[in-house]
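Technical annex B. To support the medicinal chemistry partners, we prepared a structural model of the target in complex with 3-methyl-2-oxobutanoic acid, based solely on the information shown next.
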Amino acid sequence: MAVTTQQLIQWKQQGRPIVVLTAWDYAISQLLDAAGVDILLVGDSLAMVTLGYPTTLPVTLEEMLHHTKAVRRGVKRALVVCDLPFLSYQESPQQAIHSAGRVLKETGAQAVKLEGGYPKMAQTVAQLTAVGIPVMGHVGLTPQSVHQLGYRQQGKTADEGERILQEAIALYEAGAFAIVLEHIPDDLSMRITGKIPIPTIGIGAGPHCDGQVLVTSDVLGLSDRMPPFAKPYVNLRQVITQAVEEFSREVRERQFPEDVN
Ligand code: KIV
Ligand code: NA
C-alpha cells in the first residue's frame, strides 16, 4: 500500500521507525522504493551531490521539478517529498503556494519540505496546508542558511535549544505532517520528539527521533565529502572505479566485445 502522511502519524504512535532517504533520479528511486524505504526526499542536497555545486543555494525550482518528475516515475509505494529550494518560498506565503503548487501539479510528488520555523515559516506552512499542500518542516541546521550558520551543530545552548523546540511546536501547530531535525544534540531531539504528535525525522540528531534520514549518496559511498554523522554502507566509488577500469582494460586489450561471428 502506498505510504500516506496520515500513515506516518500512526507509525509514530505505534513506535514504528520511519525510513527516509534522498533520491534524485529514476534508477535510484526504483531501487529505494522496491527496498521498502518509506519516504523518498528529493532533497536540495542534490545541488551538491548530483549537480556539483558547493552549497544547496544555487539549485532552481525548475531543476527540482525536473529531478522530482524522474523520481516519481520510479516509485510505487514511497511518499515522495520535494524540497523547496532557496528563495522559492521565503518571499511570501503566496510565492510558497505558487512553488509548492507547481511541485504537486507538475511532478506527482505528494508533499514539499521547507526550512525554518517560527514565526515566518509557521505562517507559510499554515497557508500551504490550508490549501491542501502537505508540508514537512526542517529545523536545527538548515543548509540554505549556511552563510549564517555554517554546517555546525545547532541548539547546543539552552536558549538555542528552546528556540528550536518552539520552532518545531509552531510548525506542528501550523499543520506540518513531519519535521526534519538536522544536526542537533540527542537530548534536544528527544525533547522535541516527546512534545509534538507528528513524526520527527532525524539526521545527525541521535537515536530518539521517530525516523531517520540520510543523503543516499553518503549511504552508498558515492559522495566526495561527507558530514560526520553519515554512515556509508557500501563504497560505490570503489565499485564503480573497478568496473570502469575493467571495461577500459578489456576495450584496450580487445577483449570486449567478444567475437561471436
Ligand atoms: O536536502 C536534503 O537532503 C535534506 C535532508 C538531509 C533532510 O534536506
Ligand atoms: Na534539503
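Notes passed to the chemistry partners:
The chain has eleven helices and eight strands.
Residues 5-235 form a domain with the TIM Barrel fold (CATH 3.20.20.60).
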